[in-house]
Amino acid sequence: MSKTADVVIIGAGAAGLMCAATASYQGKSVLLLDHSDKPAKKVLMSGGGRCNFTNLNTTPANFLSTNPHFCISALKRYTPQHFLELVERHGIDYVEKAPGQLFCTNSSKDIQQLLLTEAEWSGVNLHMKTSINSVTTTADSVKITSSMGNISAGALVVATGGLSIPTLGATGWGYDLARQFGLEVLSTRAGLVPFTLHPELKTQLAPLSGLSCEVSVSCHGQTFTEPLLITHRGLSGPALLQISSYWQAGDELSINWLPYCNLLKELQQLRQQHPRAHLSSWLGEQLPKRLVTVLISLLKEKGIHLPERNADASNQQLDAIANALQNWTFKPAGTEGYRTAEVTLGGINTQQISSQTLAVNGLEQIRFIGEVLDVTGQLGGYNFQWAWASAVACANNL
Ligand code: FDA
């Protein structure tokens, strides 16, 4: 069987579906192909089942990329407000969970359905369970061989995403195709991912599995103040997921367990005002008691002992306690990797891509959108906003 289309899009995820519907509404014949059995699987999994579909405060500063200016153009042309209008047109209930972070009130299925409905209304020709064998270009077209036969198209849009969660259909196919056309693929690593711990610390924290508290965590000059979650595998929660995107193997992390106080000042006051009390009682009012017990034994390992009574503490001792609790440094063993990561850092170098059209410079027929590019959002709905914005920028310039 041989087919023709104005545009072939590979990858029926967030970016691919958005691009397909937008191009199709503009009168283009669009063939959308995906090797998986269901479209938009990551949308379904996202936001703990409630899809954090955008962030009202999106700015280019919320993205990691070796070419930080690249995302500006697309983000400016398709804003969170544009996607919100689409959500409202579909009558989907949403809630602002944290400032700017919009989630579905009911289920991520609402966003998956929105994308599929738009694709259907606009006339997108969607084929799942389709594998791509080869791609070649002529002066003004693209030839694709696939499990559904040979296809000839005016343009090919690659929306195959990153490497995270292979069980949801992730592959490195988009990177391989980029290399085939001489593009540089920057090294990739898992982002927005939980940390694993060395056996000793893992054993010490294991009894606290499920415990969550607000901390500040820092690495490479970045700090996030959000909840930390202790799991049976290591450390997770929004603060740790956020910092994982800035962390590289072998780096130390610094945790401030009491991010909202000047601890040294507090300790000095306690010594003066409650000389007979024990510091652990006060700590137990600030943090979960079980955590305080573990932190005290971790301090002991560093040679820092709590005084019997606050009055017994020397200035040097208070200094050491404050510093250890507000700048608790450790080296994670690693991360859980692509198996559980929400995103992939790195990818196709955007220096070779037009920020206006998302086409390869000098090869207009080939375009890359979404997470396959070296543009990665922080936690909070930014990654979907990049998927929508890059998809629309591409579709409007096909
Ligand atoms: P996406 O991964 O969505 O789609 C790629 C598509 O290409 C898939 O359908 C895949 O099957 C297909 N494909 C891959 N290789 C192929 C091949 N060789 N042949 C054919 N098809 C192929 N972001 C956010 O903003 N808010 C959130 O709440 C969350 N939550 C979240 C939770 C979890 C568990 C994950 C894993 C991720 C998130 N994210 C998120 C991130 C977000 O899901 C992600 O950034 C976008 O889905 C990226 O959209 P893309 O369309 O680029 O890739």
SS-derived structural category? alpha+beta
Which residues form runs of ≥5 with pLDDT under 50?
Answer: none
Distance between the termini: 26 Å
Instruction: Label the overall shape.
Output: elongated
In the CATH hierarchy, the architecture of the largest domain is 3-Layer(bba) Sandwich
For the report, how would you describe the main beta sheet? 8 strands, mixed
Hetero compounds: dihydroflavine-adenine dinucleotide
Number of distinct helices: 13
Question: Taking Cα atoms only, what radius of gyration do you get, to the nearest Å?
Answer: 25 Å
Overall strand count: 22
CATH superfamily of the largest domain: FAD/NAD(P)-binding domain
Question: Averaging pLDDT over every residue, what do you get?
Answer: 96
The CATH topology of the largest domain is given as: FAD/NAD(P)-binding domain
Query: How much strand content do the residues show?
Result: 25-35%
What level of helicity do the residues show?
25-40%
Brief digest:
Helix content is 33%, strand content 27%.
Topology at a glance:
Elements: E1 2-10, H1 14-25, E2 30-33, H2 41-49, E3 52-55, E4 63-64, H3 72-77, H4 80-89, E5 94-98, E6 101-104, H5 109-122, E7 125-127, E8 132-137, E9 142-146, E10 149-158, H6 173-180, E11 185-191, E12 195-196, H7 199-205, E13 212-219, E14 222-230, E15 234-236, H8 238-244, E16 253-256, H9 263-273, H10 279-286, H11 289-301, H12 315-326, E17 328-330, E18 334-335, E19 343-348, E20 359-360, E21 363-368, E22 376-377, H13 382-395
Parallel strand pairs: 1-2, 1-10, 2-7, 10-21
Antiparallel strand pairs: 3-6, 4-22, 5-6, 8-9, 9-10, 11-19, 12-15, 12-18, 13-14, 13-16, 14-15, 16-17, 20-21
Bound molecules: dihydroflavine-adenine dinucleotide (FDA).
Dihydroflavine-adenine dinucleotide is lined by residues 10-16, 34-36, 42, 45-47, 51-52, 132, 159-161, 164-165, 169-171, 173, 342-343, 370-371, 381-384, 387.
